[in-house]
Amino acid sequence: MDGDRTVRLLDTTLRDGEQAPGVSLSPDEKVDVARALDRAGVAVVEAGSACTGAGEREAISRVTDLDLDARVTSFCRGLRDDVDLALDCDVDGVHLVVPASDRHVEGKVGTTREEVLETTADLVAYAKAHDLWVEVIGEDGSRADLDYLEAVMETALDAGADRACFADTVGHAGPERTHEAVARLAELGPVSAHTHDDLGLGVTNALAAVSAGADLVHCTVNGLGERAGNVALEEVAIALAHVYGVETVALEELYDLAQLVSRSTGVPLAPNKAVVGENAFTHESGIHTDGTLKDDRMYEPYPPETVGRERRLALGKHAGRAGVRAALAEHGVDADDDELAEIAARVTELGDRGRRVTDADLLAIAEDVTGDDRERTVDLLGLTATSGGPVPTASVRLSVAGEERVASGTGSGPVDAAVSAVREALGSAADADLESYHVDAVSGGTDAVVTVEVTMHRDDRSVTVARSEADITRASVQAMVDALDRLVDPDREVPAPADD
Q: What global pTM score does this model have?
C-alpha cells in the first residue's frame, strides 16, 4: 500500500453506532460527538437517518448548524421521501441504500434486479438535482453476485453518484472477497468500504478494501454498532498510519474521542481494547516493566502520546523490582535495595491474593517496611447520608490537619451528596479531579461487601485507592478521602473553606 495514498474516514457513530442495543443519543450529545469528530479531522460525519422521526431530524439539523469542516450526511432508504426529509435537515449529502444481494432484492424488498437498477438511477438523479453529495451503498454487497453488484454501482455512477460503497453488512466476508469486490468497483469510480466485525475481521477487511482501491472507510468510534459492531475508527486510523504511513485523522484526538463516546453512550471500553482500552499502554509484568523503563519502545508498537494516551506501570503479582522502584519514585519515596526487595515481595504477595495493588496499597507497604510512617492530614470521622426525601443529603465530619470540620451537601444520590459534603469541608484542598470511579466487586450473602476504586489527580500527581465496606456510600467517600489525603501537601496549611 502506497503511503502517499489519500484515504479519508467516514464516521457513522451517530447513525450505525446508535443502532447498537441500548444506545440512544440526545441532540446535545450528538452535537458534542460531532464537534469532537470534526476536531479529529474526520472527513464525513453521518449524523443520522432523517427518516427515523422528528427527534432525529432535530438532532441532524443541530449538527448541520455547527458549520463543521466535515461533510454532514444522512442515511436514506431507496425512497424519494427519505431524500426530501434529509433535505429538510440541510445536510450536505446522503447515503442511498439499495439492495444488492438477491436475499435483499427478493426476500427483503420484494422486487427484481431490473427494478433496483431503475430505482437507483432515479434516486441518484433526484438527489443530485438537489445539489447533494451522493454515495450509493449496495446493502449486503459481500453476499451479492459480483457481476450484479458491479451493474448496480455502474448505474449509480452513470446517474451522477459521487461514489459507490462496498458494504459487508453482516460481517460475512473475508479479506480475499473484500479485495476482489472493491477492486472491481474501483475500476468504475471512487469507492468506499463499510465493514462490520461479526467475524472479528472488521479492520482486516477495511485494510483489504483500501489496498484494493477504496479511499473512504466507514467506521464508528469504539466499534459501536449492531451485533458485534462496526469497524472501530481508532483501530483503522492507527493501523493505516503505523503500518502503511497513511494519515487519516489527528491521532492525538483518538483517546479523548473514545472517552466522550463511551460516556455519552454508556458503553464502557473493554480494558484490553486496542488503542483506547485502559490496558493498552499499561505494563505489570516485571520483564516488560524493566524493558519499558530501559527503552520506551521495548514493548509498545508506538508511543502512547501518539493517540493521546500516557503510559502506566501497574503493580500486581507479576511486578518486579524495576516497576516497584519506578512507582515509588513517582510518589517521592526512597528505599534501599533490601527495603525494595521486601516491598516488591509484599506487592507480589498481595497480587497473589487476587488484589490489584493500588497506589495507597504500595505506599502503606513502603511506610511499614521503611518505618517512615506518615501522619494523615485528612481523615473521615463520621458520615451520615439520607436519600428518602426529594433531595439526597449527606453530612461529614473530618479531621483536617488535627482540626475537626463538619459540612453537608446535596446531590443526585447519596454518594454524590456525600462527595459534595467532603469538598465543602476541604475547600480548595479538594480541588482534585476524579479521573475514574469504579465499583470493583460486590460479594453476595448477608455479609455483602462492595469495593470502590477511585483515581484522583491533582497538579502533576495521581493516586488510585480502593476501599471495601458494607455500604457503597461509605466506601466511596472513604476512598475519596484516602486519595485526597495522599494528594494534599502535609507541609502546607489546609485552608478552611471560604464563607458564602
A: 0.73
